[in-house]
Amino acid sequence: MRSFSLRQVKLRSGEEYRDEVELELEPFELGGERYLPVPDKVPAQLVIQKASTGTVFELGFTTRLHGPCYRCLGDAVLEVPIAAREYQATNPPDGSDELRTPYLVDDKLDLSAWARDAVALALPDKILCRSDCAGLCPMCGKNLNDEPHEHEDEPTSSRWSALEALRGKL
Questions:
Q1: Residue 160's domain spans which residues?
Q2: Which of 23, 63, 84, 166 has a C-alpha 20 to 30 A away from that of 139?
């Protein structure tokens, strides 16, 4: 776990602290598939700004994830730029947790958990090898990107003949 101690930063309202930190990213499990960040250690820009009502934290970095394509199971590489922002209120109203960041505990900012969550939120619904990936053939399982083809209609079972006749009438 990579954390940053806020005790080393003494800021007054309106001041800002900037630092470059190194983050170690863990592999992701998404949809039952494993995606590896390459490289697993990335430089990140950490910015801490003190406001009159609290503190604003910003984290920025770019990572590349390698893993299987959602459609064809081929190799997919996805570049993910991250620009995350969190806010910690000095005195939240009514003890509300809405204005508190979950990554700050006892003056230590958990950069590893924050980076992991920021990458997870930035991922698309489907990780593809390319935007026009054709996927796998549902009949034979061949990669349609390499071998585009079609299958002739399979003969239907006699059990469905009554429905075929009904479809012909409509």
A1: 135-170
A2: 166
